[in-house]
Hints:
heterodimer, A: about 260 residues, alpha+beta, Sulfite Oxidase, Chain A, domain 2, 2 domains, 7 helices, B: about 260 residues, mainly alpha, Fumarate Reductase Cytochrome B subunit, three-stranded antiparallel β-sheet, two-stranded antiparallel ribbon, about 60% helix
Amino acid sequence: xxxxxxxxxxxxxxxxxxxxxxxxxxxxxxxxxxxxxxxxxxxxxxxxxxxxxxxxxxxxxxxxxxxxxxxxxxxxxxxxxxxxxxxxxxxxxxxxxxxxxxxxxxxxxxxxxxxxxxxxxxxxxxxxxxxxxxxxxxxxxxxxxxxxxxxxxxxxxxxxxxxxxxxxxxxxxxxxxxxxxxxxxxxxxxxxxxxxxxxxxxxxxxxxxxxxxxxxxxxxxxxxxxxxxxxxxxxxxxxxxxxxxxxxxxxxxxxxxxxxxxx
Amino acid sequence: xxxxxxxxxxxxxxxxxxxxxxxxxxxxxxxxxxxxxxxxxxxxxxxxxxxxxxxxxxxxxxxxxxxxxxxxxxxxxxxxxxxxxxxxxxxxxxxxxxxxxxxxxxxxxxxxxxxxxxxxxxxxxxxxxxxxxxxxxxxxxxxxxxxxxxxxxxxxxxxxxxxxxxxxxxxxxxxxxxxxxxxxxxxxxxxxxxxxxxxxxxxxxxxxxxxxxxxxxxxxxxxxxxxxxxxxxxxxxxxxxxxxxxxxxxxxxxxxxxxxxx
Lengths: 263, 262
């Protein structure tokens, strides 16, 4: 200690600088190594559970996402993920205005359904001007109109074991041998029954454009964009999503993103 | 308060708060345990939160005002727009580009940051530290010119004067505690589409979600500025002495006037 105090201040400062630099390098490589450890990641992910619990507590069942006046609609929105499924089948359906397209509703339901776009338009609907928040950080505002998911599920009749609703999509976002690159998403029943949760077939008063998920996409207004599956072809009520895809509840969830995307 | 409180009677302090070292210098107990623990939790949290925040910003390195992004006309866009990330790997967490990991780090440590911050505020209020140690008196505020001048010259109070936080210290701690940190948390919550359903008023207050995101970044810049000044001041005032006091709580007063010790 004493010796140290007599050292010229400049020298001491240089030592300190070296110490800080070494500490910084150590911190970076240490954090990187931790980032690669599955057990550490699992620990970090416990924050998702805290966020989910607290937000569910604060938000309750029916707190509505903000809705905006028509004047706020973004003139230049942005789409993300697939800009089209691009398959032959999809292109054929699209060329016909999706008149031959069918939505399958299956899984833990009393009355499996096969619905046309026209059938969906007959269901109780909701129109809303809301903000779309991408996980990347950007936002745009658009008007959406679609069938209330709660109405569709009431028509199909959920069985008591059903806990999640899974959405299977026509687009493949990543080429994989085992087919886990197909887009899919899952939400819980509380979100499924929320009044703003709709299967949108219209955007800004026009049929849903292809980059935004034609003919049908999910709107889940209290979560981020990646939860809102586009190009939906099948909806399934399930008790667990452990055996779908890679088991984390969605395409992006399988790649490290949070299942609960309320933040 | 008892009559032996050090602030009232510096020459006859209570024994637990002050002791004389072998070499005749005086050590004062400056940082109680909760303060030291909170300080080091903050160090850890900020080492994670700032680089993981930049990782998240790398996913879309542009800032806007209002609710929606005006993609063609950002307020600020970072980086060249090419394949290179806007913020380089040595300043992001993890060092490679990975938004999912960045978010996991950021939210986990944001929880710790908020929880420990709340615990500290409760402690500071309950213990009287806020009013007794941090909040500047009106008399002190009148000496602001001199205090600024001393700081610019990197001349710090020594001896008896160093028992207390000086005016600029008090002002910056109070500003960070009651302005910067709450702003940080509030703008962070405003960005959450979930919380937004409950906290419409916050979105209104900040002028929209993208404004909140921009303010979140600017507030982080203010915090970085605070850290830089804090570290420069620490090094200038004597890094070992200062580090010792934030580890053990005991701050050793130097003998005599500043002129003698220089």
